[in-house]
Design a protein that fits this description.
Elements lengths: L1 E9 L2 E7 L4 E5 L6 H13 L17 E8 L2 E8 L4 E6 L2 E3 L10 E4 L11 H15 L3 H19 L10 H37 L5 E6 L7 H11 L1 H7 L10 E6 L2 E2 H4 L2 H23 L4 E5 L7 H11 L4 E5 L2 H5 L5 E5 L3
Parallel strand pairs: 3-13, 3-14, 8-12, 12-13
Antiparallel strand pairs: 1-2, 1-4, 4-5, 5-6, 6-7, 9-10, 10-11
Helix pairs in contact: 3-4, 4-5, 4-8
Length: 348
């Protein structure tokens, strides 16, 4: 539970002080007033990074430093950022830390306008969405994904070297495939768990009898991903060498979204897309809560007004159990669904 927050030199805030309630907190103000900046500060405080801005860009323009002070469940938590040289430290109950670990990170679930594009053509959006959930629910996933990206980057650099031969790739390919297997296993496990209640959640949003399922999509045999990828990398070596990048692996996979067993990525209407995304976010909220045995903060950045009456009612019902922060330009749109909410005007 986040009780209070002080922002010093955080983006648009010179010195902003806020107090919050356990239930729904409505952050209201005109566009470009700093509403999203407040949510990004909470993300930095809880997860160690903002969801849009880099550490340096979290510092107010022309300032040398920034600081966030908060009281969370009665415990002080501080983030301090220095511009030159760029440095970030955390102070957790008076103990200084260089970074947040899986243990010291606190759970949040974010719902922002970008998530309305989950069904767009770019597979990266869907991969990133699942990876974000797994970073919170699986203690080793973030480290595994980070190592995979480093090995992949090294392999791609080696592919661009004219004199490199297939023998030079053996060690890198072994590492890449082992990490890839762990990533895909975790992603498929997430999809299996999500599918247990996804149809139920979608029907609660849509009011219909549709079915909604996720399916992991890859050109690599998912049953034995690591070994299959190793064979593919060998077979495609000359092609990878010619184009200068690795064309197979978890970084190229996708997630198929099936509405009534049809590919929703190409067939879903605008209304169906909103219902799918909302069902996915509610499922994420429940899965993070269950995996961590802790209720996450729910951050809704300017999306409540994009939902129609029924979808707002469904979301409002879900929010009753969580401390929630909703940004909006029109408080009345949100207040109609909550009898007791905390209104926080932003005037920056």
């Amino acid at each position: 539970m986040l009780y209070s927050l002080q922002l010093q030199n955080i983006r648009s805030y010179k010195n902003g002080i806020f107090e919050f309630k356990p239930g729904v907190n409505i952050i209201v103000g005109p566009n470009a007033s700093g509403k999203t900046n407040l949510l990004e500060a909470i993300s930095l405080l809880y997860q160690g990074s903002a969801f849009k801005s880099s550490d340096e860009n979290m510092i107010r323009h022309n300032e040398a430093w920034a600081r966030i002070d908060a009281v969370i469940d009665g415990v002080d938590r501080v983030v301090k950022i220095q511009r030159e040289p760029l440095k970030k430290v955390y102070v957790l109950d008076e103990v200084e830390k260089k970074r947040l670990t899986h243990i010291t990170k606190l759970p949040i679930v974010l719902f922002e306008p970008e998530h309305m594009l989950l069904l767009s053509k770019e597979p990266e959006r869907r991969r990133s969405y699942i990876d974000t959930v797994l970073k919170q629910t699986e203690s080793t996933y973030a480290d595994t994904l980070s190592k995979y990206k480093r090995v992949l980057s090294q392999r791609n650099r080696l592919l661009k070297q004219e004199r490199s031969s297939q023998e030079d790739f053996f060690v890198w390919d072994m590492q890449l495939c082992e990490l890839a297997g762990r990533i895909v296993e975790a992603r498929q496990s997430y999809i299996t768990d999500a599918n247990k209640n996804l149809t139920k959640r979608y029907r609660s949003v849509s009011g219909g009898k549709e079915t909604l399922q996720l399916k992991y999509e890859s050109k690599i045999d998912k049953a034995n991903y690591a070994n299959s990828l190793a064979l593919t990398l060998q077979d495609q070596f000359e092609l990878d060498k010619m184009r200068g990048f690795t064309g197979a692996g978890p970084h190229r996979d996708d997630v198929q979204i099936l509405l009534n067993e049809k590919d929703a990525r190409t067939n879903a209407s605008r209304g169906e897309t909103r219902s799918i995304v909302l069902a996915l976010k509610i499922t994420e909220l429940e899965m993070v809560s269950e995996a961590l045995d802790s209720q996450p903060l729910l951050l809704l950045d300017d999306v409540f007004s994009e939902l129609d009456g029924k979808r707002r009612q469904t979301l409002a019902k879900t929010l009753q159990e969580y401390q929630t922060f909703i940004t909006t330009t029109d408080a009345d749109v949100v207040m109609d669904h909550f009898t007791d909410s905390n209104i926080i005007p932003i005037t920056n």
